[in-house]
Amino acid sequence: VDLLGKLKDAGLDQCLELLHFHMGSQISNVRDIASGMREATRYLVEVSGMGHPIRYMDVGGGLGVDYEGTRSRSFCSINYGLDQYAANIVQPL
Q: Which of 62, 67, 68, 70 lies 20 to 30 Å (CA to CA) from residue 14?
């Protein structure tokens, strides 16, 4: 938030267009992805409300891998597919 004030003071507040974050790797539970997106959306709203027109959100990390083939929440699996992953990324926005 300190950096946002410095950008505004320098007249560069319109230059901030991208919010990038990394939720982690091998996220096994789709609820954790949804939770991470809710948190990121709160930041997006706050930063936008401060006069910074965020145009892009880059969600790093990506899909986990179901190494076990069990579609479970274990560390070596995931309990979601591509459609559920995408829905949980887009829905909060």
A: 62
Helix ranges, the chain (H): 2-9, 30-49, 82-90
- Number of folded domains in the chain? 1
| Cβ–Cβ under 8 Å, residues 64 and 26 | yes
| Ramachandran category for residue 53: left, alpha or beta (phi over 0 → left; psi -120 to 50 → alpha) | beta
Q: Name the pairing type of β-strands 18-22 and 56-60.
A: parallel
Question: The domain containing residue 83 runs over which residues?
Answer: 2-90
Specify the pTM.
0.85
CB 68 within 8 A of CB 76: yes
Nearest CA to 33 among 93, 87, 76, 74?
A: 87
Whether residue 43 has pLDDT greater than 80: yes
42: left (phi > 0), else alpha (psi -120 to 50), else beta?
A: alpha
